[in-house]
UniProtKB/TrEMBL annotation:
Annotated protein name in UniProt: Importin subunit alpha-1b
InterPro entries xref list: ARM-like, ARM-type_fold, Armadillo, DUF7032
SUPFAM superfamilies: ARM repeat (SSF48371)
Positions of the DUF7032 domain: 29-135
Pfam families named among the record's database cross-references: Arm, DUF7032
Organism name: Gossypium hirsutum (Upland cotton)
Alphabetically ordered keywords of this record: Repeat
Amino acid sequence: MHPPQQPRPLSEQPETQPPQTLLDLITGVLSLLLLSSLTVRSFVGRWQVLRSKLCSLQSSLSSISESPHWNDNSLLHNLFPSLLSTLQRLKALSDQCTLSSFTGGKLLMQSDLDMASSSLSNHLHDLDLLLRSGVLHQSNAIVLSHPGPGSDKDDLGFFIRDLFTRLQIGGIEFKKKALESLLQLLNDNEKSTPLVAKEGNVGYLISLLEVNSQPLIREQAVLAVSVLASSSEDLRKIVFEEGGLGPLLRILETGSIALKEKAAIAVEAITADPENTWAISAYGGVSVLIEACRSGSQPTQTHAVGALRNVASVEDIRMALGEEGAFPVLFQLLISGTSVAQEKAANCISILASSGEYFRALIIQEKGLPRLMHLLQDLSSSDTVEHLLRTISSLSILDSVSRILSSSTAFIIQLGEFIKHGNLILQQISACLLSKLSISDGNKRAISSCISSLVKLMESPKPVGLQEAAAQALVSLLTVRSNRKELVRDEKSVMRLVQMLDPKNEAVSKKFPLMVVTAVLGGGSGGCRKRLTAAGANKHLQRLAEIEVAGAKKALQRLAGNRLKSIFSRTWRE
């Protein structure tokens, strides 16, 4: 019995054949293969695996032929010729394996069968993807027009499925056009990003970031991943879970300038989630980020330092920043970086300075204190200045730093200016520093103009701790006689103090105005007593003393004067 006759090879290029003709040819070869796979005498085990795949292929082709618009699908114009070539190669191999005695090289045949089997698996994957996408049920599946702003969710979802189908199973040109469409969609329609994650295949998109991808395709994929990762918390989580961080860090390390910039955006976005940030250390990413801050373009530096700031916020891995030498680079960015990079670098240093003695020692080692004090006067961004001042505040825990700050007239005057003209956060940090430093009387007199601002800050319930910081700073400044006179000469400040003493005023804890009034009266000045009495402080203090508010009795005694102190003491005991 002779084996079934093999179909005549096509003399013309398969790509030029109509889809229906190609399908008929594929079906014919497939039928012959299914028969011959039952009669092979060599490598029977391998042919059993191949027969299973051929049966799956037969089912997929049947589903395709039943789809209403499969003939219009240009992806099949590429898939069918390649599939036909694989089947024809398999048919030639089956003919050899059905001979009564195999005379060829066994290792070579095993290799040929394995390669053909692998190709067949790839074809099955592509056809399955095409069927599941639903694009074969649309007459304009591959040439869809770009969805406009008014497109509904179903149209947008279908467009995305079609786009990713082309991306995954099309040739290079299909992939390029698909990525161009994806980037246009992401740029034009912000609402599309959640649908891209739902209907598309982010994992496949990330696989295109690998070095072996075609350069233009890789570049477009990096752009798309960057947009997705930076668009929402959910999407950056998906990019991370699909394994995006490692390839992005490799691009940040070895890619072109343009790719590094986009990769840095994505890495910063991914590390904004503390649950993702730990992986930076696992990938050796801290040193990559530091080098990007040192030698990258300005956009790369700006986002790389943002990622370092995110790393600094995670206790378990922030130690790596010190070990890898982050501080010299961070201080360099403070001096020469963009305004955004300066703010992020300052924030990173601030976080580290507040994290422990190890980091504070490294900052001092880098001569960070004089740099920070100098930058306070040069930088205009309130956010950046705020971070610098927080860092200085953290460093002031060290006795050596406290002595330097206390003796610096320029720094003390700068704090006074922040209290007068800064935002609430700057005012609070400055007030805290003033209350903690051992300032000379001369420097206290130099910033007497901020006293009225401190009194006003005592009225502000937010941020938490501001009232206390302002009160303690005032108590420190009021140890100087001229400053006490400065306060009571200001009618608005006196009225504010008295109003804060009012028991009906619940916006301010009474201990703070009582601290200040006691400090004002501490020098025994008759003028200070008269002005506070005239403003109505006496009645409020009496009421506070009656309800036994701590400090009220002492303030009332001082307001009455030492000559009446014994009378008040007896009255109080009675």
